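Hi,

Apologies if this is the wrong queue. I'm a grad student, and the batch job for DivIVA domain-containing protein from Mycoplasmopsis felis produced an output file that my downstream script rejects. I'm not sure whether the problem is my script or the file. Here is the sequence I used:
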Amino acid sequence: MELKKIIDTEVNNIKNKDFKLSLNGYSTDEIDSYLNNLLLSFSIIKELDNEKDVYINKLIENYKESLNKIKLLEFKIKELENILQLLKKDKNGRN
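Support response: The file is valid. Your script probably expects a header line. Output copied below for reference.
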């Protein structure tokens, strides 16, 4: 939303300068071309911003998945340690 507000402000600022620009020797076509290029630039920035959000969300998802795997591994290690302790006790009990 913030980016859209900035884009709208900049476009309005440029449109308001249209009369001054045409007085400074710029043709209407040049002004239109400039505005279109500016809008295209902002569209590209917005698209990249959206892609960044998707990428960040994917990183967060992968991080959570990794944490879950680590927790599972820790649980399995504790289970194996308990089994090892039981085997040691059983071995000592037989001797």
